[in-house]
Design brief:
268 residues; alpha/beta; Rossmann fold; 2 domains; two-stranded antiparallel ribbon; 19% strand; globular
């Protein structure tokens, strides 16, 4: 059995065991699903009592919410050669699988875009868990060794969808413009990273090896590292400011950690 298939089986087993246990799936509810707040009346479901409002008003209040059915979840994966570093690709597959199975579990519609040097592949919604397997298998088989990410026209594809929750997944070591899709959609951003990518100081003093022996690679000196870290912080800060302004949740998931808790917090 090849390495990629073993990886997919492990991720699938891990994700399915998560949902079969005591945990709940991620909740992709609408922000605007709040319908009404009113006093409790006989026959109301006690689970709908809002205890914070009840404590303030000193009488029971219930919260009514509109049930959202069949909403569209659009997952956008940005994958290039940088995902060959460490276990980033494996973590991306795990994060996507958690989200994908959660969408299926809630009977929502999943649309998946993979961008690399432009649009690599689009997977329309299908009411079958095999869709998640098909997508993860495709990602595992991608030849990304020399691919550099091009996100220039990615928004035009997403604008074809009706109002959706769009989840952008990548390492985001670059500035990404998603102003247009903010107008009618809800967004969430997930950064997949290795910790040493954010702070490579542990490698200061090393000389990287040139495998093709056609070029000399200089020593990784401290000023170079500081310049790199400064540039990355500027990119992250720009995204942070934009996300605060547009109320976009942003989460960083590192390759050495369990993503379940962060994803639950992000989508609960």
């Amino acid at each position: 059995m090849d390495k990629n298939k073993v990886l997919r089986l492990k991720i699938k087993q891990k994700v399915l065991s998560f949902f079969e246990g005591q945990h709940k799936a991620l909740k992709f509810g609408e922000e605007e699903d709040l319908k009404n707040i009113r006093e409790y009346t006989y026959g109301d479901n006690v689970k709908r009592i809002n205890w914070i409002i009840t404590a303030k008003e000193r009488k029971p209040y219930v919260v009514e919410r509109e049930e959202v059915k069949g909403q569209s979840i659009v997952v956008v994966l940005f994958i290039d050669q940088e995902f060959l570093y460490g276990k980033k690709l494996e973590k991306l597959l795990e994060v996507f699988s958690i989200i994908g199975y959660s969408v299926m579990y809630q009977k929502d519609k999943l649309f998946t875009y993979i961008f690399s040097e432009g649009l690599e592949k689009f997977f329309p919604h299908r009411n079958s868990l095999s869709l998640i397997d098909e997508i993860t298998e495709y990602i595992s088989s991608m030849e990304i060794k020399k691919k550099r990410l091009n996100t220039e026209n990615f928004q035009k594809y997403l604008l074809k969808h009706k109002r959706s929750l769009i989840i952008l997944i990548g390492d985001f070591f670059y500035n990404l413009n998603f102003t247009e899709i903010c107008h009618k959609n809800r967004l969430a951003v997930i950064k997949i990273r290795e910790r040493t990518e954010e702070n490579p100081e542990v490698y200061t003093g090393y000389q990287l090896r040139s495998f093709d022996k056609k070029e000399k690679i200089p020593y990784l000196v401290r000023p170079m590292v500081k310049h790199y870290i400064k540039g990355l912080k500027e990119i992250d800060e720009k995204l942070r400011q934009f996300s605060v302004l547009k109320r976009i949740p942003v989460q960083t998931i590192y390759a050495d950690e369990n993503p379940f808790l962060k994803l639950r917090k992000m989508f609960s």
